[in-house]
Design a protein that fits this description.
It contains 11 helices and 8 strands. By secondary structure, the protein is of the alpha/beta class. The longest helix is centred in the C-terminal third of the chain and has 24 residues.
Length: 289
């Protein structure tokens, strides 16, 4: 875990200037998914067809990359759009993380990753009074052994709340907190401290940031913890194994080695100074050796 200093990710933001939307009393019947384009692999287009057929009373909404940018600009404006653009395009999954929080906070409904699905209709999963559903990884399924356990989460039970599925009412305070945290993390990120690839995305925009933000708010927002996702009727992946989808996702974050955030100004100067300092230290060690 990173030490608790001013560059540590996921420290609660001192303030957040994001405009708040009023919380709604019901989860609307909107089912959202996103992919980079309408050119979908057969497994994914087949999954969409099944979801639509099994949930005819839900409006299905699909967003490609261009739709995402139009949505953010129209609903949140230039400032929030600038945060989206500061996430490196080499990390489309991180951009998708940020988008899903913004989307469900504004419109509500059910968000599922494009590879994810349902084992039963949403009308059988949701209750009339639900405002927010939270799910964990199953502890007794060897396919997911060890998933969702990160050192940063030890103080909150050690398990992540999944964010490949987000089912919530619009304006829910949990998502306001998550969005503010991700924006703070983008401002705070330094690759020399916070890493790149999986290490960075899981903590900056992904389940670590999501889980920590929500745990701070658990007593301030109506919610229902449904246990493990499979028991709740949620399917992580329509592919044969939980990681088979990685071959269909361009530039999967497990293979990326560049900084997650496009650095500018003071953030870039600090990063450069840290990198040069480490290089000088290694040179000194070699000369003394």
């Amino acid at each position: 875990m990173l030490p608790d200093h001013r560059f540590g990710l996921n420290r609660p933001p001192a303030n957040c200037t994001l405009a708040a939307f009023p919380e709604q009393a019901r989860i609307p019947r909107l089912l959202h998914q996103t992919y980079r384009s309408l050119d979908l692999p057969a497994e994914l287009s087949g999954n969409i067809a099944r979801l639509r057929a099994d949930n005819p009373e839900w409006e299905y909404r699909f967003y490609d990359d261009a739709d995402i940018e139009r949505f953010i600009l129209a609903e949140y404006g230039e400032r929030v759009m600038s945060y989206y653009h500061r996430i490196s395009p080499a990390y489309p999954a991180a951009r998708a993380d940020f988008f899903r929080y913004l989307l469900i906070y504004r419109h509500g409904g059910a968000y599922l990753d494009i590879k994810s699905s349902l084992s039963r209709p949403l009308r059988e999963i949701l209750r009339e009074d639900d405002r927010y559903l939270l799910a964990h990884w199953p502890e007794d399924d060897p396919r997911f052994a060890g998933w969702g356990h990160y050192p940063e989460l030890q103080a909150v039970g050690g398990r992540e709340f999944q964010q490949w599925n987000i089912i919530a009412a619009a304006g829910h305070p949990f998502l306001y907190a998550v969005i503010c945290q991700v924006m703070h993390n983008i401002d705070t990120y330094l690759p020399e401290l916070h890493g790149v690839g999986s290490r960075a995305i899981l903590r900056l925009t992904g389940p670590v940031a999501y889980t920590l933000s929500i745990h701070r708010m658990l007593d301030r927002g109506m919610h229902r913890v449904v246990g493990n996702h499979e028991a709740a009727g949620l399917i992580y992946s329509v592919y044969d194994s939980p990681i088979s989808h990685r071959g269909t996702m361009a530039g999967h974050y497990t293979t990326v080695s560049e900084p997650l955030v496009l650095l500018h100004g003071r953030q870039k100067l600090i990063s450069t100074a840290m990198r040069l300092g480490r290089r000088a230290a290694r040179g000194l060690v070699r000369s003394l050796g």
